[in-house]
Every structure is written in C-alpha cells, then in structure tokens.
Design brief:
The structure holds four protein chains of four kinds. Chain A has one domain: MetI-like fold. Helices cover 70% and strands 0% of the residues of chain A. Chain A contains twelve helices and no strands. Chain C is α/β, with parallel strands linked by helices. Chain C has a six-stranded mixed β-sheet, with helices on both faces. In chain C, strands 17-18-19-14-20-21 form a six-stranded mixed β-sheet, with helices on both faces. In chain C, strands 1, 2, 4, 5 and 6 form a five-stranded antiparallel β-sheet that branches. Chain C starts with a strand and ends with a helix. Classes of the chains: A mainly alpha, B mainly alpha, C alpha/beta, D alpha+beta. At the B-C interface, α9, α10 and α13 of B face α2 and α4 of C.
Chain lengths: 297, 318, 520, 519
C-alpha cells in the first residue's frame, strides 16, 4: 500500500508565533472600544482629579466656596458650601484604589482556591466547594455590613471584606474552568512525566484558563466598584469629611431639585466606570468563548 | 428522584447551620469589644460590665452560641441594644414590607426577563437582539443606587414630578396602602434584576436553538411555533430557574440599598440603622434572615432544575 | 425517472467563502447513492440542501434541487417559500441524523416524537397504528411501555432506529442519511445498514447516503459520488468506481482503506517479552473492568489489542502507562514489576514506557509551541543540556516528517495529522522501549490514518521498540500488527498471530467481528 | 389628576385608577392662590415635625424634643405664655398680680375655661398641677425655675395664691413657660386631659400622634381644624420630600440651605422669623481637656462665627457672642463681639499643654443645621491644630441614657429670657445643665438677682453673671438661628413667631385650610 502523492493539503501559512491573543480578539468587538474609552476617561478623572481640581477651581475639597446648595460657579456648592467640582475631581481616587485592591485580592485567592479544588478533585474538591457554598449564601454587601457593624467603617476593612467575598465566587468559576482543562490528555501526559503538581497548575492549567479568568477579573472589578460606592453611599464606607463619589451622592441628594450637580456628576462617573469595565469584561468573554469554539471545531 | 431532592434539602440545612455558626463566630472573632464600641466615650467600667451582661458576653462562648441558636429557633432573636426591646418587635412588620417589595419585583422582573431573553434569541443577530443585548449589558453594570437615583431624578424630583421619592407610612397601615410609594423602589429592583435574567435566558435559548433535536424538529417539518413551545422552551426552564433564583436571592442583598435610598421601612433600612448604631444583635438577625432567603431560593431552583430534567426525574431513588 | 435531481448546486458562507461549487447528482427511486468525502468536503451541506435547509452562516447561491414525489409533480425545493418547504420536510423528504443522542429530544417520550411527524403532516390513517407499524419495520418493540420510554433509556443502536422510524413514518420519497452509523460499534452498524437497505428497496425510496467510510459504501450503495473540497470529482456505479477509480483523489481514498485479505509482512521471530502484564484486574465500585488479563509484547514486535468500547482496552493501556490509581496483578518491564502510579516509578522506567493519546486535539498544550511540548519529557526524564535537547527535538521532528519549520508553531496552526505526529515525536524523543498507542487513528480521516499507521510501522522497525496498538478497528490488523489479542468485557478471549486470527478465528466473538467488518 | 397638584390622601387615591391617570400630571406651573377671606373650619392638618424618638411623651411637664413641645402646646395651656411677639399673654389665668415686695402673687382664673372632658378649671386643679411639677421625688423640667415657690394655695373659687420664699419680680416670666400646662387634679398621663385647643387621639412614640378638635375650647370658633396629625421626621431630606410629595401640609425647620428648593415651588410658602433660638456646642467643664478654662476659651476663639452662619444657615441668622437670651433687656451687649483668632487660640492651647488636641464631638439631627454646624466646626478647628472626630448619632440614641453626659456635644434651645434660661440650663439643679457648669460666684449673683425687685439693680447683677459666663463658661454660642418653616399654599393662619418655636409657636388653633384642599 503505497501512498500516492497528491496535491498535499498545504499547511497554513507561517502564522505569527503567537495567535491573536485574547486581548487582540477582544479588541475586535465594538463594545470593547466603547468600554475602554469610558473606563479610561473616568480613570483619568480619578487619578488626575486631585491635582487638577484646585488648579481649575481655586478651591480645595474642604474650604468653603459659598452659601450651601448654590448652583453658582461651575458646578455649584454642596450642603456645607464646599465646591462640588473640586470634591468631584478628588472623589474617585480612593474608590478606584480600593476597588482594584479588592479585585486583586479576590482574583488571586479565588483562582488559587479554584485551581486546587478543580485539579485536586475527590474529597478536597467537595470539602472546598461545601465551604464555598456557605460563603456564597450571603450577598457580598450583607457580609460587609456585618463586618462594619462590629469593627466600624475602616478603609482596610472595605478592601478586605469585598476582596474575601469575591474569592468564593471566583473560585467557583476557576474550578469549573480547571475541571474542563483537567480532562485533556496533555494534563495526563504531564502527569505521566511526573511533572510536580505545582508546575502542572502553573504551567499547564493556568495558561489555559486565562480566558475565563480575564472575564472574571472584569466582572469582579465592576462589582467591586459597585459595592464600595454603595457602602459609601450608605454612609458606611469612606467617611466624611473625605471627598468620595458614593458619599457625595448621599450628601447632596436632599437638594436635587435646586442643585443637581452634587449628585449628577458622581452618579455619571460611577455609571460610566461600571458600564465601561462591564463592556470590556463582556468583550473578553465573547473573545474567550469565540476562541474556545474555534479550538473545538 | 425524591431521594435526590431530600439529599439537596439536607445539604441546604447543613449550609444554613454553618451559616449561623459563621455569623455568630464572625461577631466574636472580629476585634473590638461590642460593648465598648457602643458605649464609646462614656465607657465607664461598670457600664461596660452591665452592657456585657445584657449581651451575654460574659458567658463561655459555646453556651452563648447555644442560647443564641435556641433563641433563633423559638423566634427570640435577642434584645436590641438601641431600642432595649426584643429584635423580633423591631423587625415585625418590616419583614412583610420587604417581602412585598421582593415579591413585586420578582413577579415583574421574571416574565419580563424571560420574555425579552427569548425574543432576542429568536431574533438572533438582528436589530432587536442587538438593542436588547446592548441595553441589558449597560444596565446590568449599574449598581442599584445609581439606577435608583437616576429614576428619582427622572420621575420624581427634576424631569417629571410624578412619583414620591420617599416612602411615608402611617404606622399600623401596611406599606402598600399607598401604592404610589412603591413604584420607584420596585422599578429600581426590576431594572437591577431583569438584565441578568434576559442575558441568561438569551444564552440558554441560543444554546437550545442550536441543539441537534431542535434542528431535527425543524427537519421533521414542524411549524416554528410548535418547535419553540414543545422542544425549545422546556429545555430552557432548568437553567433559567437557577438564574432566576440566583437573581431573587441577589435581590435580597440589593434590597438593602434600595430601601435606604427610598426610606422604605423594610429590613434593609433596619440593617443599615443597626450597622450605624453598631446594634450587633439586630445585624446578626437580619444577616441570617437574608442568608436563609438566599439558601431557600437556591434550594427551590435546584429542585426545579431536577424536575425539569427527565433523566433525573425518571431515575427513582438514584 | 429520478426522484431527486440536484443540478449545479452552489452554497457559500454569509461572508462569501465558497462551500459548494456547481454540485450535481441524481437518485432514482429505490436506489442508494453514496456521497463520499472527508470532513470539510461539504457533503453534509449538500445532503441538507435536499431538504432546502442551510445551517447558520450558510446561504444557497444558485442551482436547483428538484424532487419528484411518488405520484406528484416535480418541484424545485430552493424556489419554495418557507411554509411549503416545511410541508415537504418529513413527509416527502426525510433526514436521518448523524448522532441520535443529540437529535432526539431527551425530555420527550420516543412514541410522541415519532407521532409528531405524522400529526404535523396530518397523516390520514390512525397515527398510533402507523407508529407501531414503523417501529416494527425497524425492529423495535412497539408495545405501550416501549412507546413511553425516554431516549436516555435506549442504547445507541436503538436510538438510531428510532431516528430511522421517524424518517420512514410518512413513507417519504427521498431519505437523506448523514453518516448514521459513525457512533455505533461494528455489529450494530451492520444491523442498522441492513434495515435501511431493506426499507429503501421495499418502499422504492431514493436514498442519499453521506459517509466518509468507503468500506460501508461497498456494502450498501448502488452508485457513488466522491466529493473533495466542495466539488464532486467522480461519480459512477459502485463496482466500476471501486475497481477502476479514475480521479487520483478516489484512488488515494481507496488505497488508504486497510485491506483485511492482503497478506501481511513477515512475522518477526518470537523473542523475550520486554513488557508483560500478568493477571491485571481493575474494578470501579461493583462494575469490574478488567478480569485477570495476561498480555505481553516483545521488543520490535507490535501487538494489537482489539476490543469494542467498554471492553476495558483503554484501562489496560493506562495501567501499563501508570495512569490509573490502583490495580491488582503486575506489569513487568524486563521482568521487574512497575509501581502502579507513574509518580512512584523511576525516571528510567518512565523514560522506557511512553504513551500516545487518542485525540490529537487534546494531547498537546494549546499554549505551548510544538518544540516546547516535545522538550518536556527530555527535561523531566533525561539530563541532556538545553542545546542537546533542542537538537534532539529538531531531529525527532524530521524523523516524523514534520520538519523543523513547525517547531515554534502552536497546535492550533497544525492539522489533525500533524498534531498526532507531534504527539508521536514527543513519545519517541526519549527513545522508549515500549510505546502504547491508544486509538491513535480513530479521530483522523481515512487518508491521514494511513500515513500515521505507516509512520508507526517504520519507526517500530527502525527503533526496535515494542508497540502496543489499542484499537476497535480490526481492519488495521494487517497494516500494523504482528499479533492480535481480542479483549471482550475485560477478558482476553483470543490471542494469536495476525494470519491465524484472521484466517481461522477460534472464538465466536472474533468470527462475528470479522463478518460484520465491511470489506471493499 | 397629577399627584402633585393635590395631596394624596388615601381616600382620593383609591378613587383614582390606572397608571395613565398618574402620568397625566399637571405641570408645576399651577399657580396656587393663597386662601383669603374669613377662616373656614374643618379638614385635617398634617404637620412634619423634626427629631423626636422612642423617648417621646404626652406628659405636659417634661417636653424635651420638638414633637413633645408641639403636643404639649396644643393639648395643655399654662396660666400665661409668651405670644408671637414674645410678650406675656394671659391664658388660663384672667390676671396675675403681685403684692408689694413681690413675695406673694395671685392669679385669677379666666371664666369659662374648661378641660377636654367638659369640667371647669378650679383653683384646686392649679394647686394639683404645681404640686406635680414641684414634686421633690420626681421634679419636672419647670421645677428648678420655681425653686423659690414655697406654697400654692387656692383662694376662693377663682383665685390661686403663690407664696414665694424669696421675693422675685420676674415671677410672671417664670410662670409663662409652655412646660407648665394646667391639668385636672386626677390627671393620668395615659388619658391626657388639658385645656388646650385639641384633645389627644392616637399616639405612637417616635412616629406619629393625632389630635381632634376640643369642642369645649374657651376661645370662640377656634380651633378651625377637625383633626391635627403630627408626624416625626429624623432626617431632613425625608421631611422635605414629604412636603414636596404633599404627604404632609406643613413642616417645621426647613434646613436653611434648602430655602431656595421650596421657594422654587409655587405651591409652597416659606415662613421665616428672627428668633432667639441657638445651637450651642456644649463642653463639660468637669471633664478633661475642657476642665481647663484656657482650652474652653481657645475653642471659643477657633470658631469663625460669620462663616458658621453663612455655611450652616446660608446667611439666615445673627452673630452670637457665647451668651444666650438676646431679647432679654438685660442682655450684656456691651461685651466685645468675640471673633476667630487662631493665633490666640494656639497660644492658649500651648499654655494648656495641648499644642495638638484630639477630641470627639457628638452630634445628631436634633435641630436643622446641627450636624452641618459640627462639620463646619471640624473644618475650622483644623487651622488651630485641633483634630475633631465627629460621632453622628440618631436622635433616639442622642437623647438616650447618655444625654447630658457627652463630654463635647451640641444641643438646641428656643428663645428665653436670661433668668428662665439660667434656671433650666446653667444651675447645678437645672434639668438640662449639659456643661455641668457650677461656678459659686455665678450662682450667688443669679440668686441675688432673682430676689432684687428693682429692674435696674437686677440688670446690673445679670450683666456681671453674663460676664462670668463670657469669660469661663462651657458653651460656644456662635449664632442665633432664623427659624424657617414651610407649608402648602392652601394652609392659612400661620404667622412668624419670635419665641423660636416653629410654625407660629406650634399654635395650630389659628390654622385653617383654604379652598385648595378638600376635607
């Protein structure tokens, strides 16, 4: 039986070493561009705001610019007559910082927990997952309130509680992704070569679950921003007299009829930020799903 | 199948017990002595001792837990340090008020979400689908209070002045005696939950519509309407029930912010007051209540999931 | 007069890529036309076009599909509007799906799913009688209990028969069968083909049989049309096409089909077994998978481990490779027993026993280049320096005829065959003494299958390693193996040289397997 | 029917069905005419009142929170009271005359004044009233001010004689307090009976109380209203929104920063009045670091009073000079107006050994502007190196068991003349001495002033007493608040009131409802 030479199915042209990365594919989706733009604008405001504010308005966040709730000046004054625009420009930094820290804590802890449970399997898996169920039976906000009730509204507590309550949710997603990957033969091949478990986790499994992890990162960031801003809005997050978007909304909503800017500016900023990060997360999800469908075809 | 459901029930009970343990321990482990935190400036030694006694802080830990758990089961949720009265009195009709909000939101959001999701799945990749998906993607990202404030600005204080943005109840009368007050809180909750149900329904329906048996049904010449009702929809019930349950449970958390925003006299507002007054007994009770709602709703979703799946339904007692 | 006539059918994707290009074929009543082609040749798209159905992302770009139903005037399906196309489907033109498990609605009883077709096309007679009648025709029990069962309570073969019953319920004029037997084992496949054959000739139904397996075509079809990348390159009566293939592609396909009757190569002299498994048994909970299996392979020799799915052949191969947690009995390498789990074996033992997995799509880490994947065993099991390893990998790539150019490519950029070659390169880079191949060809197209089998043969002779070739396809016996061991429900029922087993099989199960395997 | 045009009583809403009607609103351009002509009787007036909490009470003699005061003024009537222009006006008493030497005062009861249950007021009831107020075991809030009353004796069927231990020419002023309502001898708090224009209806502490018209009221034709409803509001925005959404007809204490919010709505009327109401910061002179007079004086120098009035009251207020009772003729206006002086404050603090100072200021929304004042003070104190931590409580906790025990907190007082205010808040036995002020020289001066009849001599003594408080008192009084209330245009009969008590001194007997609102 000799194989007759036929026009060989030409192997695909030499594609670049790395195929379009997750981000490049995600970038092709329209919502990624919109999302990135929105997020960028708000992040710039949050980071540059504190220096830009006094330069632009000539007021600091605490001095008195005029009579309370007066719409004069660019964005008018708040309940104590402080300049709304300056406080708005300075109001994003802590929110952004706490959100990013909480997300990082949640993702790292969650990914580790998820991978160990997913790859470990058996008793370890069911033990971790049962523990997870207990943590998941609380809305994140309620656990945060419980902690604040006992310790009091502290900055570090916000980051810790929101971060820790992210972990079980991220763990569940990571575990699902890990279990899907663990079924592949290249994992069993690595086991056959007695590659240490730690290396299998980091070298073989982690690179293959970056898709779902990125999506999870985008989602957790969106939720972190939402929860921290909500806690400040409830008066239990960042405390007065600090300038913070969530707090400003609560302080100024009494004079909504006459001086809406104290509420509208922070509301628009938080909305833009959460929508922005969510759009980016969604485009990452479509990219990750897209790539996976391709691989399976 | 009944054994499957029984086992799921046991798991829920175990989780609920673990949750109660977690709530109790959380308040112990965390640093800071509640009595001193409450008394603050005026913490003279004898006042602390008196308050500690009142909060049973002087008993050994496990005994306090058993007392607390015992109280829980018999409906005595301990005494609130701020009102000196029993917690149950404080919660009383607030629970029915919050339940009313939850049920109204669920009754509106679920069919709306499922309808929009199915409609955009059927119209896949056409204008309606893109519009619905786009909007639900944007709204899903917004935190509850942003949506709430937007509604207040739109419908209550600035653009239109139609609905009250504050709930005022004459005591003794249920909240829904003045329905105009419920419109904005319920609208906010519906807007918070519907996007998730819509997106999940759309994803499930897309998956079902791409399935082999739907293609087979079409190739058998069945009209599209029959294909949808007999083959496609039954399969979407299981997963969607899960999401709807998850969202309703999530509502239990979201209600806290909405009640604060609209001054709605429910357990959410009571929780915020209790937290700002550091009234730990009330916080424990409400946290546990919300967690219980969370677990029960998840249990119901799983049961619906099992019933909707014929394989599990037919396996007697596996 | 032909019942189904497809002329110059053209189909392209929504963004313009060409899928089918001027495809023409015809089927007379009672005749079976086989549409043969490899995956991606567009045969399924052509088949579905007969029902006027185009999957998501495909759109018809010309040509006509005329159907002349029994006692009805001919009609071009592509010109019909949606409603009238729908009336045709299931009554005049029927479709039998490839994977019955996916196509039957798991939450609807089978009786109802069959009755649906009749009700939709307002069948004149009493529906329940016709349902019972057609079930009997396909050899399924038609009693009340059977009708009330759910798809998951039936075996693969039974589910496929329900599919066939659904198709023939309204006595269609044309039936399109889309590779109905791929998922089934050889015995069930033979029964299903016989049923389809009888029903078509009995009711004068024109059948369009889509498949990639030429052997099946010889058994079933009257005429054959060979499809290659969207075109029909050749179509003729079965006997003429099989004996005098005109088009080079057809010839290539025919050559790739393993031939059972051709005399094999010389059998090497019996030598000391390098690998011997003694009374190996494995059970998960109460179901026993392996019952005291004894098998051995000598250096340079290839033993084919033959068995249906569920016979325990993969479990046995994994015991040898050390991937199962625990088993009783021993696996000895040159006499010394190996620890059950690979982690407790020595590097040397791990180096000497290598394993190639079934699916090329999941055996290579998608995020590592081919070179990086092949280098892993070298790093773990040998102490070669980086440069030596790099050289060894390059050498191995040439050896499996992949070429060094593909070294830093990702698996996604390679075809199925190339990926399997890379996997083989990884297994052989440490020059093992024993190579275990678990169904390495079953996921590949017939033509690619041949190249892999040929490669393994060359490497075995050249490197002199022992080869344990695990498969369910007995036809490959002559191509690759010296001896065959037949495994059934965890027991070796027969062992012997290829000639002995193929010519005079001693065990009845082997005999039935041989008869059921279609031959050219 | 646009919900906003007319208030949404439950009955109207049930008559209206369907959301469409809700949406068909009439714009806010509806110009409502103020009711004119003779007062019409009938209708229910719903009033939103600030503060209040679980400790609310119907007891006539211990009103603390605003809702308590509003209830007491409408249920009970003292012998005499300060009217809208802060002049003394006879109520249950026809006349009050003092014998020469101001040691015995005789009050003649007005004819025709009857209790809610119809019984006429007798001298015995008056004696019983004062016996309850001065009860040594449970002294009521008015007791301290009437310490000099030795005996109250009924004289005939229409007169009552007050025999004082020491002569007091200002006794009529001391009797003119709203917390001295006349009650029947057999009074029981659970079934409150008084001579006020309204009878008690339902009462839920911390939430709401309702009252019905007293048909036996001695003033002809009054009160015009059938029913009065007082609703508690702890949060400012809830009160404002309740008015804007017409769930109440009038509210007291509009946060001055929101005056424009209400002026921008044509359906609303704003009622502003210069008053003697003041919102002091109270420092306990017996607790460190405030026990050092230099610290107290330093903190008094830290406050920028002009800025406080602008930022907290949006300009609606008058400068304070750490002294109360601005309308009292004996007010020590000659003392120099204290101004912010950060350097001097730092010097004093350094001398006292506190170059940097950490203190906790306890605040609560007891009165409009209270919490804002605390936040502005926090900001102003930073300049002097004083770090103020604000602990915001709700009104129930603020007035809970720790009220009057906070080291550094706030409080609110209505207009009073000097001596009655000292009696209630600056003497060791005063019921509300937040600063625990106990200065022997000060007490001596006040006692002496109390018994000097000659007004000029007494004024001299009071000025010396005020100088002591000015130099080492525990109160920081930065200003006097213009009382601002608001009500729907269809409410009539409310006039500005200088006593500082909102909504024309909570005297709803004059209020009536114009055409805009049906019963």
């Amino acid at each position: 039986m000799t194989a007759v030479e036929l026009p060989q199915t030409v192997t695909p042209p030499a594609a670049p070493a790395k195929p379009a990365g997750l981000f490049r594919t995600a970038w092709t989706f329209p919502q990624a561009k919109v999302g990135a733009a929105l997020t960028l604008v708000v992040v710039l405001i949050a980071l540059l705001g504190p220096w830009l504010g006094p330069v632009l308005t000539g007021h600091t966040t605490t001095d008195f610019a005029g009579k309370p709730f007066k719409p004069d000046g660019i964005a008018g004054t708040d309940g104590l007559g402080r300049d709304v625009l300056t406080r708005f420009l300075a109001g994003g930094t802590t929110l952004l910082l706490y959100a990013v820290l909480a997300t990082a804590l949640g993702i790292v802890l969650g990914a580790l927990l998820g991978m160990v449970a997913g790859y470990g399997g058996g008793r370890l898996d069911s033990f971790l997952m049962r523990g997870n169920d207990v943590l998941l039976s609380f809305p994140q906000l309620v656990i945060a309130l419980l902690a604040i009730a006992v310790i009091g509204p502290e900055g570090w507590l916000l980051v810790l509680v929101i971060g820790l309550t992210h972990a079980p949710r991220t763990a569940r997603v990571t575990r699902q992704a890990t279990v899907a990957v663990r079924g592949n033969d290249y994992i069993r091949a690595a086991e056959m070569y007695a590659v240490p478990r730690g290396q299998i986790l980091l070298r073989e499994i982690l690179p293959n679950i970056t898709g779902p992890l990125m999506v999870e990162l985008g989602l957790r960031l969106t939720y972190s921003i939402g929860y921290i801003a909500s806690l400040s809005f409830l008066g239990l997050g960042i405390q007065p007299p600090a300038a913070d978007w969530g707090l400003m909304i609560n302080e100024n909503r009494i004079a909504l009829v006459v001086q809406p800017w104290g509420v509208l500016l922070p509301v628009l900023a938080i909305a833009a930020l959460t929508v922005g990060t969510n759009l980016v997360a969604d485009s990452l999800a479509s990219a990750a799903a897209g790539r996976k469908r391709e691989a399976r075809a | 199948m009944t054994r499957l459901i029984l086992r799921r029930l046991l798991v829920s009970l175990a989780v609920l017990w673990l949750v109660s343990l977690l709530v109790f321990v959380a308040t112990l482990l965390l640093p800071g002595d509640p009595a001193r935190a409450i008394l603050g400036q005026q913490a003279t030694p004898e006042r602390i001792a008196a308050l500690q006694h009142q909060l049973h802080l002087d008993l050994p830990v496990w005994q306090r837990y058993l007392d607390w758990l015992g109280g829980l089961l018999t409906g005595d949720l301990g005494t609130s340090t701020s009102t000196q009265g029993p917690v149950t009195a404080l919660l009383g009709d607030r629970i029915s008020a919050s339940l009313a909000l939850l049920i109204l939101a669920a009754v509106l959001a679920t069919p709306l979400g499922i309808g929009l999701g199915t409609w955009s799945a059927i119209r896949r990749d056409r204008v309606t689908d893109q519009v619905i998906s786009g909007i639900s993607l944007v709204i899903a990202a917004l935190p509850e209070f942003v949506i709430g404030v937007a509604l207040v600005v739109l419908l209550s204080t600035t653009v239109f002045k139609i609905f009250p943005s504050v709930t005022l109840t004459t005591p003794g009368e249920p909240v829904w005696s003045q329905p105009a007050q419920l419109v904005l809180p319920v609208a906010t909750l519906v807007l918070v939950v519907t996007p998730y149900i819509t997106r999940m329904m759309r994803a499930t329906m897309n998956e079902v519509l791409d399935s082999g048996y739907v293609e087979m049904a079409r190739l058998k010449g069945m009209p599209e309407r029959l294909v949808l009702t007999r083959h496609a929809l039954p399969h979407a019930v299981g997963p969607v029930a899960q999401v709807v349950a998850l969202q309703l449970a999530w509502l239990a958390g979201g209600v806290v912010v909405v009640e604060f925003l609209f001054r709605y006299p429910g357990i959410g507002q009571a929780l915020i007051d209790a937290v700002s007054k550091r009234d730990v007994a009330v916080v424990q009770a409400i946290t546990l209540l919300i967690a219980a709602v969370y677990i029960v709703v998840n249990l119901l979703a799983d049961v619906v999931g099992i019933l909707a799946n014929p394989k599990l339904r037919t396996e007697a007692g596996r | 007069m032909n019942t189904l006539e497809v002329t110059d059918l053209a189909v392209r994707t929504t963004d313009g890529a060409r899928v089918l290009d001027a495809v023409s074929f015809a089927v007379a009543p009672g005749e079976v036309l086989a549409l043969v082609g490899e995956s991606g040749s567009g045969k399924t798209t052509a088949g579905l076009a007969a029902l006027g159905h185009f999957r998501r992302g495909l759109v018809s770009a010309g040509g006509s599909v005329t159907i002349r139903p029994r006692g009805g005037d001919p009609v071009d399906v592509l010109t019909l509007d949606v409603a009238s196309r729908r009336r045709l489907r299931g009554s005049t033109v029927a479709y039998i799906p490839q994977d019955p498990a996916l196509s039957l609605n798991p939450s609807v009883r089978i009786g109802v799913q069959i009755a649906e077709v009749l009700e939709t096309h307002s069948y004149p007679g009493t529906v329940s009688d016709r349902v019972a009648e057609v079930l009997a025709e396909v050899g399924l029990p038609a009693d009340e209990a059977a009708l009330r069962r759910y798809p998951h309570q039936l075996s693969g073969g039974q589910q496929q028969r329900v599919g066939i019953a659904m198709a023939f319920a309204c006595r269609p004029s044309v039936v399109v069968l889309d590779e109905p037997t791929t998922g089934l084992d050889v015995l069930t496949q033979a029964l299903v083909l016989k049923t389809v054959r009888e029903l078509c000739s009995e009711h004068g139904v024109a059948a369009l049989y889509i498949t990639h397996d030429l052997a099946v075509v010889a058994e079933l079809a009257d005429r054959v049309a060979v499809m290659y990348r969207g075109d029909i390159v050749e179509s003729d009566a079965v006997e003429r096409l099989l004996r005098h293939p005109q088009h080079p592609y057809t010839r290539r396909l025919l050559d790739a089909v393993p031939d059972l009757d051709e005399p094999g190569g010389a059998t090497p002299p019996a030598r000391e077994p390098v690998l011997a498994a003694k009374s190996v048994s494995v059970s998960y909970g109460q179901n026993v998978v392996l019952r005291g299996v004894d098998v051995s392979v000598a250096a340079g020799e290839c033993l084919m481990l033959l068995g249906e799915s569920g016979s325990g052949k993969t479990t046995l191969s994994q015991c040898i490779a050390g991937l199962t947690r625990s088993y009783s009995g021993t696996v000895a390498l040159d006499g010394t027993a190996l620890a059950p789990s690979t982690r407790r074996r020595s590097d040397e033992q791990r180096r000497r026993v290598q394993y190639v997995f079934q699916s090329p799509f999941s055996s290579l880490n998608p995020r590592k280049t081919v070179a990086q994947s092949i280098e892993v065993p070298l790093m773990r099991l040998t102490d070669l320096s980086r440069a030596q390893r790099r050289e060894r990998v390059g050498e191995m790539l040439d050896r499996v005829r992949l070429g060094r150019a593909l070294a830093n490519r990702l698996p996604e950029q390679l075809s199925g065959g190339e990926r399997q070659r890379a996997a083989i390169a990884r297994a052989l880079v440490t020059t093992p003494d024993v190579l275990v191949c678990d169904e390495v060809t079953s996921a590949l197209d017939v033509s690619v299958q041949a190249t892999i089998v040929e490669l393994l043969g060359e490497l075995r002779r050249e490197l002199g390693m022992a080869l344990l070739f695990v498969t369910h396809n007995i036809a490959l016996a002559r191509e690759v193996a010296d001896r065959i061991a037949v495994l059934r429900h965890g027991e070796i029922v027969e062992v012997g040289t290829v000639d002995d087993v193929l010519r005079s099989p001693s065990h009845p199960y082997t005999r039935s397997l041989l008869e059921a395997t279609p031959r050219l | 029917m646009e919900e906003r045009c007319r208030p949404f009583t439950r009955r109207n809403f049930l008559a209206v069905t369907g959301v469409a009607l809700l949406a068909a609103g009439c714009g806010s351009t509806f110009t409502a005419a103020a009711p004119a002509g003779p007062p019409r009787s009938g209708g229910t007036l719903r009033v939103g009142v600030t503060g209040g909490g679980a400790s609310d009470t119907l007891d006539p003699h211990i009103p603390a929170t605003n809702p308590d005061i509003a209830r007491v003024i409408n249920l009970y009537e003292p012998l005499l009271v300060r009217d809208h222009d802060y002049q003394l006006e006879m109520l249950v008493a026809q006349s009050l005359t003092s014998a020469p030497g101001a040691r015995t005062w005789t009050a003649v009861l007005r004819d025709g004044v009857r209790f809610h249950d119809g019984r006429a007021v007798t001298p015995a009831d008056v004696v019983a009233t004062f016996k309850r107020i001065l009860d040594p075991k449970d002294p009521k809030s008015g007791a301290a001010g009437l310490a000099m009353v030795a005996d109250v004796v009924a004289k005939g069927d229409r007169a009552v004689e007050f025999r004082l231990s020491t002569p007091n020419s200002g006794f009529d002023d001391l009797l003119g307090q709203y917390s001295l309502g006349i009650i029947p001898a057999d009074f029981d708090v659970k079934r409150p009976i008084g001579t006020g224009p309204f009878k008690a209806g339902s009462f839920t502490p911390g939430l709401q109380s309702t009252f019905t018209r007293n048909e036996h009221y001695w003033r002809p034709g009054q009160p015009y209203l059938d029913e009065l409803v007082l609703i508690n509001f702890a949060e400012d925005d809830a009160r404002i929104n309740a008015l804007l959404s017409s769930q109440v007809d009038a509210i007291d204490q509009v946060p001055v920063a929101l005056v424009d919010v209400l002026r921008s709505d044509p359906r609303m009327r704003v009622l502003a009045a210069d008053t003697g109401t003041w919102l002091p910061f109270t420092m306990r002179v017996d607790r460190p670091p405030f026990d050092d007079v230099r610290v107290r004086q330093a903190l008094r120098l830290v406050v920028d009073r002009e800025q406080m009035i602008n930022q907290v009251l949006s300009g609606q207020g008058r400068l304070g000079n750490d002294l109360y009772a601005p309308f009292d003729p004996a007010y020590a206006s000659e003392l120099p107006q204290r101004k912010q002086d950060i350097e001097a404050a730092k010097k004093l603090l350094a001398e006292a050994g506190h170059s940097t100072l950490d203190i906790e200021l306890v605040t609560a929304p007891v009165q409009a502007g209270a919490v804002e004042a605390a936040q502005v003070f926090q900001q102003q104190a930073k300049a002097a190196g004083v770090n103020v931590r604000i602990r915001k409580l709700d009104t129930t906790t603020f007035y809970g068991e720790n009220y009057l025990k906070w080291d550094f907190a706030q409080d609110f007082w209505y207009t009073r003349n000097y001596l009655p205010q000292v009696a209630v808040g600056s003497l060791p036995k005063s019921p509300y001495n937040e600063t625990h002020w106990q200065d022997t020289e000060f007490i001596g001066l006040v006692a002496q002033a109390g018994s000097t009849v000659d007004p000029k001599a007494r004024a001299e003594l009071l000025k010396k007493a005020q100088k002591i408080e000015y130099e080492r008192g525990g109160l920081i009084i930065w200003g006097f608040v213009n009382q601002v209330d608001a009500y729907h245009v269809h409410v009539a009969g409310l006039v500005p009131d200088r006593t500082g008590i909102s909504l024309s001194g909570y005297q709803f007997r004059n209020a009536w409802l114009g055409t805009g609102k049906e019963a």
